[in-house]
Specification:
two-stranded antiparallel sheet, 7 helices, alpha+beta, globular, 237 residues
Length: 237
C-alpha cells in the first residue's frame, strides 16, 4: 500500500464486509481526518489485493466522498495504480487494458476512464452501508434521533419504491419469484422490447430497478440492522 501522506489513515473504526468468506473486504475509517479505505484481501497468492482510499465530508446530512487513490497488488505484478493523488493514470489504465482486452472484451475502456474520473470528484455517497457507517461515527453531524429518522425515512422510501416497481412490472406482464434476498424476475415472461420499455419506465419514475429488486429483502434487512447500529451483521451484496 502506498505511503503517500494524503492517503495514510489512522484507523478509528473498521467494518468487516465479508464475514465468513475466504476473501476479506474491510472498510477502514479515520473519522478525525475524514478519510477512508476499502481493502480486499485474498488468502491466495494468485489473487490480487485491492485498495481504494479517499476522503469524505458532510453537507448537512448528505455524505460526500471522493477517491484519492486506487490500486491493486499481487505477488505476480506487484503494486499497480489506477488513481494517485486524485488523478486518473489514464495512460497506464489504457495500456493495461490493451494487454488483457481479449479477456476483458466486455469492458469499454472509455467508459471506465470516465467512471474513474468521476470517482475523483466530490459526489454524494449512495452506498447505504458506507454512508450510514460514516454518519454513525459523527454524532456532531447526527445525534441518535436524527440518525434514526434518517434511516427510518430510507426504509419507508425503499418499501414504497419496491412496491410501486413490482406493481408496474406486473402490469407490464412480468412475473416474479420471491427469494431469500428479494424478488427475482422470472424469464422469459415478456419480450425483450417490452423489458427495455419497463426498465425505462422504472428509471424515469425513479423506482427500484430490476437488479435492485433482486436484493430488496437484503437491503431492507440491512437498513433495519443499521437503524439499531448492528453494523457487524452487514455484508456486501
Amino acid at each position: 500500500m502506498s505511503n503517500e501522506s494524503n492517503t495514510r489513515i489512522n484507523p478509528s473504526a473498521t467494518l468487516n464486509l465479508t464475514p465468513n468468506q475466504r476473501e476479506k473486504t474491510e472498510l477502514i475509517v479515520d473519522s478525525e481526518n475524514k478519510k477512508f479505505q476499502f481493502c480486499t484481501h485474498s488468502d491466495s497468492i494468485d489473487d490480487e489485493d485491492y485498495f481504494l482510499s479517499g476522503e469524505y465530508r458532510f453537507e448537512d446530512l448528505k455524505v460526500m466522498t471522493r477517491v484519492l487513490e486506487e490500486s491493486s497488488h499481487s505477488f505476480k505484478n506487484g503494486e499497480i495504480f489506477s488513481i494517485r493523488d486524485g488523478v486518473v493514470l489514464e495512460s497506464d489504465v489504457r495500456n493495461r487494458h490493451e494487454e488483457v482486452k481479449e479477456i476483458l472484451s466486455f469492458v469499454n475502456i472509455d467508459e471506465k476512464i470516465i467512471e474513474l474520473r468521476n470517482s475523483t470528484n466530490w459526489r454524494p455517497e449512495n452506498n447505504y452501508i458506507f454512508k450510514y457507517f460514516l454518519i454513525s461515527l459523527h454524532p456532531e453531524v447526527a445525534d441518535d434521533l436524527a440518525f434514526r429518522r434518517l434511516v427510518r425515512s430510507e426504509i419507508e422510501s425503499h418499501k414504497t419504491a419496491r412496491d410501486k416497481a413490482i406493481a408496474l412490472a406486473k402490469e407490464s406482464g412480468c412475473s416474479f419469484e420471491e427469494t431469500e434476498k428479494g424478488h427475482c424476475l422470472v424469464a422469459p415472461t415478456i419480450s425483450e422490447e417490452s423489458l427495455e420499455k419497463l426498465k425505462g419506465l422504472l428509471r424515469n419514475q425513479k423506482l427500484m430497478d430490476l437488479g435492485k429488486l433482486m436484493y430488496s429483502k437484503k437491503i431492507l434487512s440491512d437498513l433495519e440492522n443499521i437503524l439499531e447500529r448492528r453494523f457487524e451483521q452487514l455484508s456486501l451484496i
